[in-house]
Every structure is written in C-alpha cells, then in structure tokens.
Amino acid sequence: MKSELTSDEQQRHERILTIADSMLDMIEKSISELTRCVLKIKERTKTVEYDYDTKKPVNEVVEEKENVEIIDGMIDKAALKQLVSTLKDIKDIHTSMTGDDDRDTDENGIVLLSDVEETEDEQFEE
Questions:
Q1: How far apart, in Å, are the Cα atoms of 121 and each of 6, 116, 117, 124?
Q2: Which residues make beta-bridge pairs with 1?
Q3: Which of these, 67, 74, 73, lies nearest to 40 by C-alpha position?
Q4: Which range is least confidently modeled, 9-23, 52-66, 85-99, 106-120?
Q5: β-strand pairing of 56-72 with 36-51
Q6: SS3 of 20, please?
Q7: What are the residue boundaries of the structural domains of the chain, listed by start?
Q8: How far apart are CA 30 and CA 85, in angstroms?
Q9: Structure pTM?
Q10: What is the 3-class SS of 90-125, one letter each residue?
Q11: For 35-53, how does the pLDDT look when each residue is reduced to its tens digit (9 = 90+)?
Q12: 75: which DSSP letter?
C-alpha cells in the first residue's frame, strides 16, 4: 500500500470507515435483540343477525383484534451467523485498507506458512 493516498482514495477510505462504524453500531443494537421474538395474537369475532321470517342474514359484523408482544425467546442462530459474517467482512475491509495483517503475505495475497517439523512418530517407515 502506498504511503501517500490521493484525495479520492482518502475520501473513499473515510467513507468506508464511516459505513463500517454505522454497521458496528447496528450490530451492537442487534446483539441485544437476538433473543427477542415478536408474538402476534389475532382474534376475530363474527356476529351475524338473522331475520327469522326470511331466514337470511340481515346484519354481519366482523371484529378483529391484534395484540403484538415482544417476548424473550431462544437466540436466533441465523441472525447470529449473519452478524458474525458481517463483522468478518468489516474486519477484512479494514485489514485491506490498513495493511495490518497478522499473517505473512506476499503481494499476491498468498499466505506463507511456516514449515512443520515432523516427529519420529509421524514419519512413515518403509
């Protein structure tokens, strides 16, 4: 990564960091809501008045009530997985922008792993 950024690159980096901060705020809010569930209770009452002489309905009234409650429930695992994935994406963006990576990488993005030493138990006898 170049030590000096152009004005457009600097503005882009600032925008990305602003979006990442907004996403982190939303994630923090979502974490507290992972165990909450919305419970909808619907009640429908139908009242029909009949004219007994003609044996036909004269008046019909339909009454609907809906109660919405927020209750604690089990953790939504799909939502948790999405949040973790979003955090990883934000970390990857930040890492690519700053060049801070704990791993040894070359300029092509290839991770260089250190050699693994074999013990006597792991070697195959011929």
A1: 56, 14, 12, 8
A2: none
A3: 67
A4: 106-120
A5: antiparallel
A6: helix
A7: 1-35+74-100, 37-73
A8: 14
A9: 0.44
A10: HHHHHHHHHCCCCCCECCCCCECCCCCCCCCCCCCC
A11: 888 889 999 999 999 988 8
A12: -
* Beta strands in the chain, from DSSP E residues, in sequence order: 36-51, 56-72
65-111 pLDDT, tens digit per residue, is 999 998 888 877 888 888 888 888 888 877 877 766 555 445 556 66
In the structure encoding, which two tokens stand for residue 42, read together? 């619907």
Going 105 to 110 to 111 to 113, the CA torsion angle's sign is negative
Instruction: Give the separation between CA 53 and CA 63, rounded to whole angstroms.
Output: 26
Residues composing the chain = 126
Structure token digits, residue 117: 């030493």
Q: Residue holding tokens 């990442």?
A: 20
Q: Which two tokens stand for residue 10?
A: 């600097």
- Which two tokens mark 101? 């990576």
